[in-house]
Amino acid sequence: MHMSGDTNVSDTAATADPHSVDAPPVVSARGLDKTYGSGDSAVRALDNVSVDFSRGAFTAIMGPSGSGKSTLMHCLAGLDTVTSGSVRLGRTDITTLKDKELTLLRRDRIGFIFQSFNLLPMLTAEQNILLPAQIAKRKVDREHFNHLVHVVGLGERLDHTPAKLSGGQQQRVAVARALLNAPEVVYADEPTGNLDSRSGSEVLGFLRDSARELNQTIVMVTHDPVAAAYADRVIFLRDGQLVDEVREPTSEIVLDRLVKLES
Ligand SMILES: Nc1ncnc2c1ncn2[C@@H]1O[C@H](COP(=O)(O)OP(=O)(O)OP(=O)(O)O)[C@@H](O)[C@H]1O
C-alpha cells in the first residue's frame, strides 16, 4: 500500500537486482544530526549520518552501547524527530511531515518488530497478525497470509493466544504481522534479544528469507554479531557517526570490527 505519488519508486525498484545492496534506496538519510538536551547537558546522539537502504536488502546496525543505534532507527522510522538533515522513504521526506501524517506513514508503509513482541494478550495469533490491517481498513490478501503463516510455521497455532505460545512463536507472530502488508521497510529492534539461540536463528533465518524471496527491505538493530551475520550488510556507529561497513558479514568479521570500535 503506497500513498499517492510514491508508487513510481517501488515500480522502478522492482526491476533492480533484488539481492543487491546496491539496488535503488528505499530509505535514504542525509546529514542526520540529533542532539538531545541543550547547553552543557547536550548529547549529540547522531552526527552527520548519511546512509541508504536498498530494496530487498537486510541491513544490521551495530555499534558500542550509546553509539546511537536506537536513535538512528527511531529517526529513520519517524518515531523521533531529527535536529537537522533529511530522511526519505521512497519519495517522501518524512522529516517534513506533521504528526498525523507520520502516524499514517508508519501505519501504512513501515513494519515494526520489537524485542518484546508487543502482541495483544487477549487476541489469538491470527487476530494479532490481522489487527493492523483491520485498523487501517486494508483488505487482506488471504493467499499471502496463508503463505506467511506457513513459512513462519504458525499454521497449527493460529487460534492460540500469546500466553500459549513460546517466545520464538510469539516473535514469529510479530514478524508475520510486520510483513503482512509488504511494507516498504521493516525496522527490527533487537528482534532476538528475548529468544534462546535456536528460536533466534529461526526468526533471523525467516527475516533473511523474506529479504531474499519477498524482496522485503529490513533494517535491524542488534548487539549480537551472530544475528548481524544473517544480514547482507552491517553498518557500524561510534559516537553518533557512521564509521564502518561490512558486506556479506560473518560473525567473526563483525566481532573483530566491534572490538576495534570499542578499543
Ligand atoms: N531521550 C534521550 N534524552 C537524552 N539523551 C538520550 C536520549 N536517548 C538517547 N540519548 C543519548 O544518546 C546517545 C545515543 O543513544 P542510543 O540509545 O541511540 O544508543 P544505542 O547505540 O542504541 O545504545 P544501546 O546499545 O545501549 O542501546 C547516548 O549517549 C544516550 O545516552
From TrEMBL:
The keyword Membrane does not apply. Residues 27-263 form the ABC transporter domain. InterPro entries: AAA+_ATPase (IPR003593), ABC_transporter-like_ATP-bd (IPR003439), ABC_transporter-like_CS (IPR017871), ABC_transpr_LolD-like (IPR015854), MacB-like_ATP-bd (IPR017911), P-loop_NTPase (IPR027417). Keywords: ATP-binding, Nucleotide-binding, Transport. Residues 1-28 are annotated as: Disordered. SUPFAM superfamilies: P-loop containing nucleoside triphosphate hydrolases (SSF52540). GO terms for molecular function: ATP binding; ATP hydrolysis activity; transmembrane transporter activity. The keyword Glycosyltransferase does not apply. Residues 1-13 have a biased composition (Polar residues). It holds the Pfam family ABC_tran. One of its GO terms (cellular component) is membrane protein complex. Transmembrane segments: none annotated. It comes from the Bacteria. PANTHER family: ABC TRANSPORTER RELATED (PTHR24220:SF685), IMPORT ATP-BINDING PROTEIN (PTHR24220). This is Putative ABC transport system ATP-binding protein.
